Each structure stands twice: as C-alpha cells, then as structure tokens.
Amino acid sequence: MLILFRSDASATDEQRVAALVQELGASAKPIPGLRRRAIAIVDNDGRIDSARFAALPGVEEIVSLTKPYRMVARDWRPDPTVIRLPNGLSIGGPELFVVAGPCSVESETQIFRTAEAVKRSGAVALRAGAFKPRTSPYAFQGLGAAGLDLLRQVRDATGLLIVTEAMDDLGIDAVAAIADIVQIGARNMQNFSLLKRAGRCGKPVLLKRGPSATVTEWLMSAEYLMAEGNPNVVLCERGIRGIDATARNVFDLNVIPAVKQLSHLPIMADPSHGTGRRAMVRPMARAAVAAGADGLLVEVHVQPDQALSDGAQSLYPEQFDLLMEEVRALAQVLGRTVGGGTPATA
Ligand code: PEP
Ligand code: MN
C-alpha cells in the first residue's frame, strides 16, 4: 500500500502515518519526492485497513498494491481450487457440475418426481430450498424443517447430492447437517454474521452474487468464508439488477472470465434467476458453459405451471434433458467432461 501525501503535508503528518503503520504491525518505508512524498507499507499481510490512514491530516491518496480479498485472490494461489465432493464428484476441475431442481421443496411427490427426472437427465445434485428468501412476506416461505427432511429422504433414495439454502444464523446448522453444499442466497451475500457462520459450517458453500454487488464486493464476501477457515467456496453468478424488464436480471457472463483471472475459486452460473424466463434459460446456460463456468444451477419442476415459486423460469424435465445433451456436446468441444458422465438411459 502506498500512502501519498499532499504537497503541503508537514513532517509531523508523515511521522504520524509512520507511527500508525508501526502500531499496526508493518513497516513504513518513506519515499522521497521533490513535490510529493509518500510512505510505502511493507510487510503488509493484507490485513491493514486503508481507511485508518484516509482520515489523517496531510494524506491525499491511498493506492492499494494488492487485492483486498487476499485468500480468494489468484495472486495468492495461482492454481485453481478444486472442491472435492461425495460420489467422486468435484467442482473447479475439468468436470462440469450440473445442479438442478425446483426453486422450493413443495411436497413429497413434487420433490421426488423432480429429483428422479433431473437424475435421469444426468444432474448429479438436486437444488431446492426449504427456507426461501422471498420479496413478499405473503409469498410461500418454504416448508422449513419438513423440507429439509424431505431433502434427506431424496438424498438417501437417489444418491443425488443436495444443495440447499441457509437463510440465517439460526438455521444454518440444520441446513449444513443435511446439505452437501450450503447455498448463501443473493440477498444474503453481505450478511456478514451468516457468512462467518457459513465459513465454519464444515460444508462447501455456494455463494451467489448479490443483485447489485460489484465483483470486488462479491469476492470480499467469499473472503469472509475463507477467513473463517472454509476453503471450499464456489461462486455463483445469478444476474444483477438492470434497467430493462425484458429479463428478470442482467445475466452477467463477463464475470466468468473476469473472476477466473482474479480468483482461484470455481464459478458456476444460474441462468434461471439470471433470466427469469423459461425460454431464455437454455440459450444462456449454453453461453455460460461456453464462457468457462464450472457448472450450472438450473431450476426444473415437474409442473412449473403449478410451482409455488419461480415457475416462470423453471424448465420442464424434457427441456432440461435437452439442455444436458447440449452441455455434454459443449463440454466435448471445450475439453471438459460432465460430472457423473452420460446417464445410461440418455
Ligand atoms: C434461489 O436460488 O431460488 C434463489 C432465491 O436465488 P437468489 O438468491 O439468487 O435470488
Ligand atoms: Mn428460485
């Protein structure tokens, strides 16, 4: 970090900065200049908060030389993180990880029928929410603990891995007890107490991007998870707020190659929330795979017209089946494979 002084800064201003650098456990190296002087902070392990200097007299500008998300940054770990999962599956390696399922667990019949359908098409994990973050308090909020219990039964019966959302500090332990991957939803991306708990939950975490979050904010949230000791973090792009109502969100595919440069963490894509419209899901899922996503999260429902949440963006099982065929073909072109291989019936 470089702290640049105003041209009229006094020697006392510089000494004050140097003293604070030392107090924070790093070393200050003065950089002389004819008109403007600066202090470089050396031995900075990335934990020094630049805001501590911004308010000091004589300080004009602070230039960060390293990323604020130290553990998440590729500078820190050049090799990609590969998350190892049960059933020999992984995220972040050559395999594409495809997760599918309804937005919410609604009933035993609905969840079992949907799980069996997505499994037949080649999904390796079922994603469904038992606790749902809904914009309206009057909308279906999920089955809660009963929904988790149904997910446990689905896991036992089908062998599919389970991805499901933890909405708050109170519920996360119950979710982590049955989930193979704990989802942190878009609206909770900056719920820092939840992130800290998720960092200690003992399960991989799928961190969705907040609807208005910058990439830096998103990666800082991932840093919270890693700083608590959880190395198994997968990012998930799900669209950001835009100006046009043609789609529910702007599905930001730019971030896939951008995040690959900035971070070693895997990144998946959710074209269902990214578009909000069934007809747009398959094309954008293909685009996400082509852009380098490590996996897909796709909403599928056996009866989308009767879904209690997100029916308009949920694929019919036949459409998901087609998408899986397309993903397998794309994977081949891209030199990747699809986790779980080709289902016997496909
Ligand atoms: C969901 O995954 O169903 C969901 C609510 O997603 P998001 O947090 O991305 O809105
Ligand atoms: Mn949903």
Structure description:
- The chain is of the alpha/beta class and 346 residues long.
- Helix content is 34%, strand content 18%.
- The protein has helices spanning 11-23, 51-54, 108-121, 145-158, 172-178, 192-199, 215-227, 255-262, 271-275, 278-291, 317-334, and strands spanning 2-5, 27-31, 38-42, 59-63, 83-84, 90-91, 95-101, 125-127, 161-165, 181-184, 205-208, 233-237, 267-269, 295-299, 337-338.
- Helix 10 (278-291) packs parallel to helix 11 (317-334).
- The termini are far apart.
Fold blueprint:
Elements: E1 2-5, H1 11-23, E2 27-31, E3 38-42, H2 51-54, E4 59-63, E5 83-84, E6 90-91, E7 95-101, H3 108-121, E8 125-127, H4 145-158, E9 161-165, H5 172-178, E10 181-184, H6 192-199, E11 205-208, H7 215-227, E12 233-237, H8 255-262, E13 267-269, H9 271-275, H10 278-291, E14 295-299, H11 317-334, E15 337-338
Parallel strand pairs: 7-8, 7-14, 7-15, 8-9, 9-10, 10-11, 11-12, 12-13, 13-14
Antiparallel strand pairs: 1-3, 1-4, 2-3, 5-6
Helix pairs in contact: 3-4, 3-11, 6-7, 10-11
The protein binds phosphoenolpyruvate and manganese (II) ion (MN).
What keywords describe this structure?
4-stranded antiparallel β-sheet; binds phosphoenolpyruvate; 346 residues; 8-stranded parallel β-barrel; 11 helices; 18% strand; alpha/beta; binds manganese (II) ion
